[in-house]
# Entry
Amino acid sequence: MSLIDSLPEVRGLLAANVPLEKYTWLRVGGEAEVFFMPKDEADLAHFLSSTPDDISMTVLGAASNILVHDSGVKGVVIKLGGGFSNVSIEGTSVRAGAAALDSKVAKKAALSGVSGLEFYAGIPGTIGGALRMNAGCYGSETKDVLESAVALDRSGRRMVLNLKELQYSYRHSGVSNDLIYTEALFKGLPGDISSINDKISKISNNRNESQPLKEKTGGSTFKNPDKTISKGLSAWELIDAVGGRGLKVGGAQMSNKHCNFMINTGNATASDFEDLGNKIVSKVKKFFGVELEWEIQKIGKF
Ligand SMILES: Cc1cc2nc3c(=O)[nH]c(=O)nc-3n(C[C@H](O)[C@H](O)[C@H](O)COP(=O)(O)OP(=O)(O)OC[C@H]3O[C@@H](n4cnc5c(N)ncnc54)[C@H](O)[C@@H]3O)c2cc1C
# Structure
């Protein structure tokens, strides 16, 4: 029996052998054995509670920080859709579904004069990805503005996690990777609409100048290392110093504009990206003794 035939009936979309490439920013990777887009949280909870624990589940947000293996992903790939994308304002708090784009949250908060969430205008992912990755930029991170997050575990049990329980550190959450976030509650501050919009414009302009936003990219490839180990150098400075800027493997290249970003020059495969990333890791290790850690999440058989 194929996997899809063994899965429970759902109200959302459930399909076998779905190409994932088109869902990802890097535009590479194979198929999901089964692809599930739940209609709403109840649909997702029902699916999780009726699916055996040994079936692997992987969640995709906007896949702006994901590399999908060329051979695809075994098990079920879950992508939250429209039923999880609502954003509402409650005083100076913002409630957002996990599929809402970070930029939508920033814009909605701005329209209501809620400040503190401007940095989300610069991150092209969803709230689910931000909760998992503790996404941040320009000195602010998800952990600075988050009040609580709603998640479902593998058995479909709903839980509300407060900030402390999420155990955030730089681009990392200490809770189980099996949790699927469905919603977040952020705390903002009252602010002046035009100053908030100015801040958002500045962030967008800075991004346009410094990042290859028109390319197929995956954002920062490597986390910034602990500066006490890297003698104060960021990931991009280490990459630049070892001649990584513009380095190519097949169709994958370290961007000339921002050398910690990988880009797909047209015909890259996931294995080109992996080989390129590994080449950078070994060069940096050899010259600086620093072990770069992938920030891009690799899914499938890497
Ligand atoms: C041009 C560009 C610029 C970027 N700039 C920044 C930046 O400044 N700062 C920054 O932090 N990041 C940046 N990124 C990386 C990326 O946008 C963030 O990490 C973002 O938070 C990922 O969100 P996503 O929805 O795309 O998640 P995905 O890339 O789809 O997934 C990332 C991880 O989150 C998990 N995940 C996604 N949704 C859920 C969910 N609902 N429940 C549980 N787990 C989930 C996935 O399984 C995966 O492990 C950039 C990326 C690009 C392409």
In short: The domain at 3-82 is CATH 3.30.43.10 (Uridine Diphospho-n-acetylenolpyruvylglucosamine Reductase; domain 2). Residues 221 and 296 are 5 Å apart (CA to CA). The mean pLDDT is 97.
